[in-house]
């Protein structure tokens, strides 16, 4: 699988550069950008840089920006760093090598709060973590987050600013924002985890890539009148082998 090649590249970085986390982080970002740029459908570019809205507000630096380069050009470019208008952006990805503490995760929440204020409402926000805390720990981190103001719970407004997907490679999961209907009606995240034929975790990396691929494919499809959806299906092998479902409940509906 192509995603196995990507995982092996990231593993090689971890082996050869063991004690310099900033370098590992930069290389992980570059490997992921290169992979997405190579294997995503045409019509989009995969860069790093900044996003600007119609009033001139600029985001913090973003690790991966996936934008329509067929109808939009960067407003500014230096090598692989671009500034692009928010209406051109399909997805953004914040890449982290390791997130295993409450403070680190809370910094990420604040980062997404800041960036999402500049994004177009249609842009998907994604968090990609190579070494991640378990979903049990993430649940704890979410509920320990210090909100501004007196109200110390998530609600519809604050939930909007959170990443739409959270992918952990080690602990394997791909959490997506969802309506959760178990004992009560909640909003939060769910992750459907699968096993392959050898009883190993199917890659959350595959699910991550599939979700972005489908996003770009649907976007491209919306720009054409051609009916070719049935001839270009994209499936994950062995998706039927459901292992478990992880849930993070954030607030009542």
Low-confidence stretches: 227-238
Topology order in helix (H) and strand (E) letters: HHEEEEEHEHHEEEHE
Structural class: alpha/beta
Q: Give the count of structural domains.
A: 1
> What integer is the average pLDDT?
82
Q: Multimeric state of these chains?
A: single chain
Strand content: 25-35%
**N- and C-termini, Cα separation:** 40 Å
The biggest beta sheet is recorded as:
10 strands, mixed
Strand ordering within the main sheet: 3-4-1-2-5-6-7-8-9-10
**What's the Cα radius of gyration?**
18 Å
Question: Can you describe what's shown?
Answer:
The chain has one domain. It has 253 residues and is of the alpha/beta class. Helix 1 runs antiparallel to helix 2. The chain is globular, with a radius of gyration of 18 Å. About 5% of the residues have low confidence. Strands 3-4-1-2-5-6-7-8-9-10 form a ten-stranded mixed sheet, sandwiched between helices. The chain contains six helices and ten strands; from the N terminus they run ααβββββαβααβββαβ. The termini are far apart.
């Amino acid at each position: 699988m192509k995603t196995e090649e990507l995982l092996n590249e990231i593993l090689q970085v971890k082996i050869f550069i063991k004690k310099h986390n900033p370098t590992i982080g930069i290389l992980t970002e570059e490997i992921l950008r290169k992979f997405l740029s190579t294997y995503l459908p045409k019509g989009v570019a995969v860069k790093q840089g900044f996003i600007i809205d119609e009033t001139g507000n600029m985001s913090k630096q973003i690790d991966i920006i996936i934008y329509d380069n067929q109808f939009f050009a960067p407003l500014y470019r230096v090598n692989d760093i671009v500034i692009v208008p928010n209406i051109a952006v399909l997805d953004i990805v914040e890449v982290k090598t390791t997130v295993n503490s409450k403070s680190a995760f809370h910094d990420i929440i604040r980062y997404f709060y800041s960036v999402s204020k500049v994004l177009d409402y249609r842009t998907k926000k994604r968090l990609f973590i190579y070494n991640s805390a378990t979903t049990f720990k993430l649940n704890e981190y979410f509920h320990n987050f210090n909100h501004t103001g007196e109200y110390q719970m998530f609600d519809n407004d604050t939930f909007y600013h959170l990443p739409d997907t959270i992918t952990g490679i080690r602990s394997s999961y791909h959490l997506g924002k969802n309506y959760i209907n178990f004992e009560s009606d909640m909003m939060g995240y769910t992750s459907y985890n699968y096993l392959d034929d050898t009883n190993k975790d199917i890659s959350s990396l595959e699910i991550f890539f599939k979700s972005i691929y489908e996003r770009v494919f649907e976007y491209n499809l919306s720009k054409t009148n051609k009916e070719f959806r049935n001839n270009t299906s994209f499936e994950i092998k062995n998706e039927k082998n459901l292992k478990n479902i992880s849930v993070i409940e954030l607030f009542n509906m």
